[in-house]
Amino acid sequence: MADNPHNSSELPPFILTGLPGMQTLQHWMFLLLGTLYVVSIVGNVLILFIIKEEQSLHQPMYYFLSLLSVNDLGVSFSTLPTVLATFCFHLQKISFDSCMAQMFFIHFFSFTESGILLVMSFDRYVAICNPLRYATVLTDVRVACMGICVIIRSVCMVFPLPLLLKRLPFCKANVLSHAYCLHPDLIRLPCGDITINNIFGLFTVISTFGLDSAFILLSYVLILRSVLAIASREERLKTLNTCVSHMSAVLIFYVPMVGVSMVARYGRHAPQYVHTLMSLIYLFVPPMLNPVIYSIKTKEIRRKLCKILLRTKY
User: Fold this and answer.
1) Domains in the chain, CATH or no CATH each
2) What is the pTM of this model?
3) Which residues pair with 190 in a beta bridge?
4) What is the distance between the alpha carbons of residues 266 and 30, in angstroms, rounded to a whole number?
5) How far is CA 79 from CA 73, 105, 125, 142, 286, in A?
6) DSSP 3-state of 258
7) How far, in Å, CA of 171 to CA of 3, rounded?
8) pLDDT band, residue 12 (cuts 50/70/90)
9) Listed residue (242, 250, 257) closest to 290, CA to CA
10) In angstroms, rounded to a whole number, what is the distance separating the alpha carbons of residues 192 and 158?
């Protein structure tokens, strides 16, 4: 541990951590993570290919799904270099600038995913509660504008984080808790006043995850009210079934996030590998499960996927 503070420009490399206290399992861990990477990358690429090739899927719901798949690919590729280096090659050093860049992209894609899930909930709301105006409300131009707004918001929220960290002096141990760079992990390292960083971090969480989850919940309350007004039980179930994929995507994104927050707040005495595993679930499970869920629950995607598999087989 250094006794004197260092500016970020002269800071020695950060040290990434695999599974603390479980070094003998790290090759097996990489095998597991490698499998998740393959499923995530192949699954999301297939979703994008199918939507591009299938004309019947050229509609707002699937444009948003395409954006979600691109974002999930971004999450996977953001963590892949350091996870591969740490778990497979035991290369645990990362420079300050590289760490800041990785932190930017991880949090950018995380905020973007939350925004995409929000606009997808709006899509479901319009489709169920006002179906006659669906085509006029969700035009291609408006879909593109919504996607651009989500991306711009994410950039505005994440861009200040590296700058706020860069201004601080570092004098503590430069060992990170994960195999990648996250803001909550990095913010514990500076020895200067981090009040501004904490306030801005709280603001970003509330104005993205907090507001998005509240509006998603509101949209489903309105959807449920509209569905309950349908007389036929079969029609109610059929209508709700169109939301299952999106509801599943929301749950597999927000539940691990809440789990990570709860462990960080109330599990301080838990072994460090518990925190590491929770963060791995948060970053690896949604990109892997989203294409699986949509492939299973969407008839058009499932049919096209079966054709691709049969063509490959023969």
Assistant:
1) 14-308 (1.20.1070.10)
2) 0.91
3) 170
4) 28
5) 10, 9, 33, 32, 14
6) helix
7) 6
8) low
9) 250
10) 21
